[in-house]
Amino acid sequence: MATNEVKQRNWAGIVLVILGLAFLLRNLHLLPLPGVFFSWKALLIVIGIVGISLGKKEGLVPLLIGALFIFIYDILGLYYFSFRDLWPLALVIVGIAILMRHRSSSNNIQTDSNEIDGMALFSGVEKQVTSNQFEGGKVTAIFGGIDVDLRAATLSNQNNVVDLFTLFGGTEFRIPADWTVNMSQLTVLFGSFEDKRNIANTQTDPNKVLYIKGLILFGGGEISN
């Protein structure tokens, strides 16, 4: 694991420890701070800071949401706005995030494209890639599941990277047994991601490396063959 990545995880751990201690001391009435520091708005900001400290640009979204609501409620004092009035902003933000990640997306079962752009939003999606120069791409699962079958694909000679984002969803990659999978840049928070391939009697090829990076939040995934 790279030194920079270790530092990122250490900082994330420190932030979570401090947050837990702060809530504990407040519950014991030993930390007299204003309530805004322990509100859901502050929690969003902390989640955003943790995400950014892990090098995930998606962490900017909860940070901005938390800061926006603190500005509206606690600085401007516009208390006549309730969360029920403003919750559609969450849909706008999720929509913008989807548009930024996927300029075009298709649920076709089979594709020979060199890059995958798959998304499962409140649904299940299956992708079978048959490219002979597969370079990676983007895979997103939000309240849904996506199955990516790469067993008929051949890796390119480039730096082959799949950028994965999972939120309350699941992802499965079916990958040839002789591929080497590098997950050192994949961050998993409140979830799991495992390589469950049966490769005990298979010699992996060091020239066939697929990098899976990104963020899994309240979700899961696995690699199989």
Task: Note down, in words, how this protein is organized.
With 225 residues, the protein is an alpha/beta fold. The chain has two domains: 3-100; 104-224, no CATH class. The chain has helices at 3-27, 40-53, 60-75, 83-86, 88-101, and strands at residues 110-111, 115-121, 124-129, 136-142, 145-149, 161-167, 170-174, 180-182, 186-189, 192-195, 209-217, 220-224. Helix 1 (3-27) runs antiparallel to helix 2 (40-53) and helix 2 (40-53) runs antiparallel to helix 3.
Order of SSEs, N→C? Answer: HHHHHEEEEEEEEEEEE
User: Strands across the major sheet, in which order?
Assistant: 1-3-5-7-12-10
Q: What's the tally of helices?
A: 5
List the domain count as a whole number: 2
Distance between the termini: 25 Å
Q: Bin the strand percentage.
A: 25-35%
The averaged pLDDT comes out at 76
In percent, how helical is the residue content? 25-40%
Class derived from helix and strand content: alpha/beta
Please count the beta strands (DSSP E, at least 2 residues each). Answer: 12
Shape: elongated
What Rg is obtained from the alpha carbons, in whole angstroms? 20 Å
Outline the biggest β-sheet: 6 strands, parallel
Concise structural overview:
The protein has 225 residues and is of the alpha/beta class. It has helices at 3-27, 40-53, 60-75, 83-86, 88-101; strands at residues 110-111, 115-121, 124-129, 136-142, 145-149, 161-167, 170-174, 180-182, 186-189, 192-195, 209-217, 220-224. It has two domains: 3-100; 104-224, no CATH class.
Please specify the SSE layout and strand pairing.
Blueprint: H1 3-27, H2 40-53, H3 60-75, H4 83-86, H5 88-101, E1 110-111, E2 115-121, E3 124-129, E4 136-142, E5 145-149, E6 161-167, E7 170-174, E8 180-182, E9 186-189, E10 192-195, E11 209-217, E12 220-224
Helix pairs in contact: 1-2, 2-3
